[in-house]
Design a protein that fits this description.
The complex is a heterodimer of chains A (251) and B (204). Chain A has 251 residues and is an alpha/beta fold. Chain A is 35% helix and 24% strand. Chain A has 10 helices and 11 strands. In chain A, strands 1-3-4-5-6-9-10-11 form an 8-stranded parallel barrel, surrounded by 8 helices. In chain A, α7 links the parallel β9 and β10. Chain B has 204 residues and is of the alpha/beta class. Helices cover 27% and strands 30% of the residues of chain B. In chain B, the strands form 3 sheets. In chain B, strands 2-1-3-4-14-13-12-9 form an 8-stranded mixed sheet. A 4-stranded mixed sheet of chain B has the order 6-5-7-11, covered by helices on one side. The termini of chain B are close together. The model of chain B has no long low-confidence stretch (mean pLDDT 94). The chains are: A alpha/beta (251), B alpha/beta (204). At the A-B interface, loops of A face α1, β8, β10 and α6 of B.
Chain lengths: 251, 204
């Protein structure tokens, strides 16, 4: 049986983890390479770097971070943030990432998903989505970090993403992100039931049981969180123990 | 020295990183002479079978690979494992290296999420030097949409995903293949790679 994945996300700006974490035994606070190594030790199934800088100037920094992390961490590594072209994807993969996560640019230019999947394989193209409810069973897709409503129906978009060859969807709910009351299960379920590719739940995890709840109430493949793990309120190991105790298969 | 065959298809750097981490001398190469002098060979690969098979044949290394696979330990990883089989039906009928009995086709179950992506448990069917030091509850990282269909006598381990997905295969001699990515499978994967390296030193 395929294990459910627990994925910590690190927000990286100018080569540092934003909101620096003080992991025990790490000399340089906020060093993404050390943070990734710590998450690996805790049993993270994958690690995501989200490049906050994501500007042309900042791009080189994340490539260095990926390169150094890939030398030390032997679980899959995903990089997201500001990816615009197939060349951007190529550079990130060559630095040692296993997948990229495209978001805003994919909404504005869906061909990016198809080009990425055709050239590098579906397995390395994850499409990140920020969505918000506009009715009881209706959501629209936002871009630029949840700032611009594209008036694009979420369910139509996820079906299109699958058609274009994406290997995975990372679904973030603007309504629950930062609220810490649990994942947006209704939206998550609607998306999982609409596609046949893996869906990662993102946004809203605030306590231990939220992860297991997402796995028990929807068929999502993975759950992602940033600040909970950043601030050491929970370790990946604790989340996995909780899932295991509820009969969920985890590594 | 372990040669990682660089024929232009995929995850060669992560395999190299893992071997570096293990302190093993390795080289990324497309040079037949280097393959001949290596203690063992690794064939990596991601992407689609036909384009990888084409790249491999264009590299002019097919004959050397087949010849060397009789003499020294050989490990195919992911698509590199699939290339070991006789043929594949991914997009079109396409010939593989024919080092291991069987063929490659789409994971058949309609109701499954495809790709088979993530960590799955190894179920051993026979002992294998690659499994030395592994426990009963080992998970490894898979990413693939096509799988091997092979006779029991080439299967060493499988994972359950709708049906049995061959995870470790071999010809009973020097040739082995992993459908999963040992270089991305944490400590379990590093142990498997290290066991492969040990086999290479023994044959030397």
């Amino acid at each position: 049986m395929l294990a459910k994945r627990i994925i910590p996300c690190l927000d990286v700006r100018d080569g540092k983890v934003v909101k620096g974490v003080n992991f025990q035994g790490i000399k340089e606070v906020g060093d993404p390479v050390e943070c990734a190594a710590e998450y690996d030790k805790q049993g993270a199934d994958e690690i995501v770097f989200y490049d906050i800088t994501a500007s042309h100037e900042g791009r080189g920094v994340i490539l260095d971070v990926v390169r150094e992390t890939a030398k030390r961490v032997f679980v899959p590594l995903t990089v997201g943030g500001g990816i615009r072209t197939a060349d951007d994807i190529r550079r990130i993969l060559r630095a040692g990432a296993d997948k990229v996560s495209v978001n805003s640019q994919a909404v504005q230019n869906p061909q990016l998903i198809k080009d990425g999947a055709d050239i590098f394989g579906s397995q390395c193209i994850c499409v990140g989505i920020d969505a918000k409810a506009i009715g009881p069973d209706k959501w629209t897709v936002y871009i630029n970090g949840g700032r611009i409503d594209m008036k694009l129906d979420l369910i139509e978009w996820v079906k299109q993403i699958e058609q274009l060859g994406a290997g995975e969807i990372c679904l973030n709910s603007i309504d629950t992100d930062g609220v810490r009351g649990g994942f947006d299960l209704k939206m998550l379920k609607a998306v999982v039931d609409s596609v046949n590719i893996p869906v990662i739940a993102s946004g809203g995890a605030g306590k231990l049981g939220d992860f297991a709840e997402a796995f028990l109430k929807t068929d999502c493949s993975a759950a992602l969180a940033a600040s909970l793990f950043h601030f050491r309120e929970l370790t990946v190991g604790q989340v996995k123990d909780d899932c295991r105790s509820k009969g969920i298969i985890v590594r | 020295m372990i040669a990682i065959i660089d024929y232009g298809a995929g995850n060669i750097f992560s395999v190299k990183n893992a071997l570096d981490h293990l302190g093993v001398d390795s080289r990324l190469t497309a040079d037949a002479e280097v393959l001949k002098s290596a203690d063992g060979l690794i064939l990596p690969g991601v992407g689609a079978f036909p384009s990888a098979a084409r790249k491999l044949s264009q590299s002019g290394l097919t004959d050397v690979i087949k010849e060397q696979a009789k003499r020294k330990p050989f490990l195919g990883i992911c698509l590199g494992m699939q290339l070991l089989f006789e043929k594949s039906y991914e997009f079109e009928l396409c010939e593989g290296l024919g080092l291991v009995k069987g063929f490659v086709d789409r994971i058949p179950e309609d109701d499954l999420i495809i790709p088979h992506m993530g960590w799955n448990k190894l179920e051993y069917t026979r002992s294998c030097p690659l499994f030395e030091g592994l426990g009963d509850n080992e998970y490894v990282y898979f990413v693939h949409s096509y799988k091997a269909f092979c006779p029991d006598d080439v299967l060493y381990a499988y994972s359950e995903y709708g049906s049995r997905v061959p995870a470790v295969v071999g010809d009973g001699k020097h040739v082995f293949g992993c459908q999963f990515h040992p270089e991305k499978s944490g400590q379990t994967g590093l142990k498997i790679l290290n066991n492969f390296v040990k086999m290479c030193w023994e044959v030397r």
